[in-house]
Amino acid sequence: MRRAFRSYMALTLKSYRIAVFVVRPLFMLAAAFILMWTSGEKDGLYPENLLFAFAAAGDVMLDGALFGGICQRGAACLGYMRTSDRGMAVFSGGLLVDMLFRFLYYMLIGGWCFLFTGLSQDFAAAALAYTAVTATICFTRHFDNWQVDLLCSAGIAILFSVLYLTFGILQNRLAVDLQPAAAVLCVTVSYAAARHMSWCLKRSYYEKESL
Amino acid sequence: MLETQDGKEFESVIEGRNLHKKFRGFALDIDRLYVPQGFATALIGENGAGKTTLLNILAGIRLDYRGELCYFGKYTAEDRETNPVVKENIGYTGPGNYYLPQWRVEQVGEISELLFDGFHRDRFEEWCGRLAVGPDGSNRKISALSDGNRMKLMIAGVMARDTKLLLMDEPASPLDPLMRDNLCGLIREYLAQDEGNRSVLFSTHNVADMENVTDYVIIMEGGRIAETGFVEELKEKYVLVRGEPEFSEAAAPHLVSMNSGRYGFEGICQADRLDALAGCKVSAETPGLSQICVAIMKKYSDLHAGREGKRGM
Amino acid sequence: MKILQNSGEPIYQQIANQFRTDILAGKYKQGEYLPSIRGLARDLRISVITTMKAYEQLAQEGLVTAVQGKGFYVNAQDSEMLKEQHMRKVEEALTEAIAAARIAGMTGDELTEVLLALLAMEEGGS
């Protein structure tokens, strides 16, 4: 585990880490606080949760800045990784740590909202946002192209909002607690994303064109 | 496993059998591959002859090929993927994008530490300084480095490790002439440091640059190996002949390949065929390595074109 | 050691000649190892196979012996054999001189005079 953490530190840029650990959380915590303070519940919906949509959109752009194109055949750094017998392990370790930090970040924001509202729904919203981001970056990592990232960011904001509204409405109508479903979805998508990355890395050994 | 040449035996650092890889419009097809241990081997061929593909296969960067390989006399290709000792001892440099463009020079050092046990950070920094990677020694982004600097960075990366085999894909191409000279010196120093146990295999499409450091030659053309041998042996096997223009037609069939013009002809002939040129009043001398390589490559590409032509008909 | 890249003589031959001269002149003791082939190649900035061929030539002439994994060491130089070799060289050179003298129309006495004069010059100089 420590090795995976070292990989993460080595593979990522300092500027990326500053954005992830300092800028992003501070901004989100501040924005959530302001929203919660200035408005309240309206029709069972909480505006601070919709903030997650924008957080998710921003995350896609951030990931694209560093790892965009990593899943492509002939991707830039993978050749170097393959010259070592543990290259793939090191790389996927770093990616997993990145995914873990992403999850913790969303839970942090969810927890922050929970402190104020006392609603476990906040965690569910956080989980849904995390799920949406994780699924989207599996797609954007195939393209080394900021326009694709931007498009997907917009898409993800929409995707999350739809998910959130759907969950909210279903919950109200069905009077069923869908929060466990959100948790399950979160775990499933994480697993699928990890498998997908693994598959992309293995596939890089079998390119059609030479590097 | 050993390689026999004129009764002398040499250990091989890499041996390959029946290596096949098919691309669209191109196929790598090698029956036997020997790379002798303790020497600098040049893999020579035109662009598109299959050198990069072969080196990628040998370095373990691509796995989509058929055939058997044997490293250091005892490890197979499967061992290479599972047993760390093989890749630990192989240092690879190549011309492509091997680093993420957003990375910085220092980061390459950190990542290399994770990837390889035998990587020494202090040596890496020393080599970066010695090779002047990035003109002012600052920690630049990879994307800001020129091709030459990126190649120097890769070289610094492999020199900082303890390896027994260097696989270098076109190391001289992006480098300026001064640095190319340094590269030759670097290779000699590498071989000299562990007498007989270290080997270098590099590819080049310009023999003249690396002629002073080449011990063994593998000439590739169209995905196949056209000729191999130690340089001194090839210089005895082939002869450079020159003659008057009136004899060029008579001489042509006996030569490996030939340049002829108004003022005479010049070509490479196999030494044991020299008698066939007796009537042509030719002068014979020892050929240079470039001349031998060009002649063989020409012969094989003509053969290839002839084959293709026949198929077209 | 001077290596001429563009002379007609192959580089390995030049190296072999230099070492042969040094060995016969006694610069290397019996049993002493010559520089390693890769170290020499590095210092002379040439390929390993060239230095190897030079040493192999010396080994063929009996001047050195190859030891697997260690290098080439200098053989004991038989001083009688050396003397004989050099005496033979003197005979060959003198035979050539005589042939040239015939062509130039010199007599035996004139040739001997030249030889004595040259010897005197050499002794005077040394």
CATH fold-level assignment of the largest domain in chain B = Rossmann fold
The name of the CATH superfamily of the largest domain in chain B reads: P-loop containing nucleotide triphosphate hydrolases
Tally the beta strands of chain A.
0
Report, as a whole number of angstroms, the end-to-end distance of chain B. Answer: 45 Å
As a percent range, the share of helical residues of chain B equals: 25-40%
Brief write-up:
The complex is a heterotrimer of chains A (211), B (313) and C (126). Chain B is of the alpha/beta class.
Describe the model.
By secondary structure, chain A is an all-alpha fold. Chain A has helices at residues 2-11, 14-38, 47-67, 78-82, 87-117, 121-140, 146-174, 179-203. The radius of gyration of chain A is 18 Å and the shape is elongated. The mean pLDDT of chain A is 82. By secondary structure, chain B is α/β, with parallel strands linked by helices. Chain B has two domains: 2-229, Rossmann fold; 234-304, Alpha-Beta Plaits (2-Layer Sandwich). In chain B, strands 7-8-9-4-10-11 form a six-stranded mixed beta sheet, with helices on both faces. In chain B, strands 1, 2, 3, 5 and 6 form a five-stranded antiparallel beta sheet that branches. In chain B, strands 13-14-12-15 form a four-stranded antiparallel beta sheet. In chain B, strand 10 (216-221) and strand 11 form a beta hairpin. Chain C has 126 residues and is mainly alpha-helical. Chain C is 63% helix and 6% strand. In chain C, strands 1-2 form a two-stranded antiparallel ribbon. In chain C, helix 2 (37-44) crosses helix 3. The mean pLDDT of chain C is 85. Chains in contact: A-B, B-C. Chain B binds chain C through residues 38-40, 184-185, 188-189, 191-192, 195-196, 212-216, 230-232, 235, 286, and chain C through 10, 12, 36-39, 41-42, 45-50, 53, 69, 71.
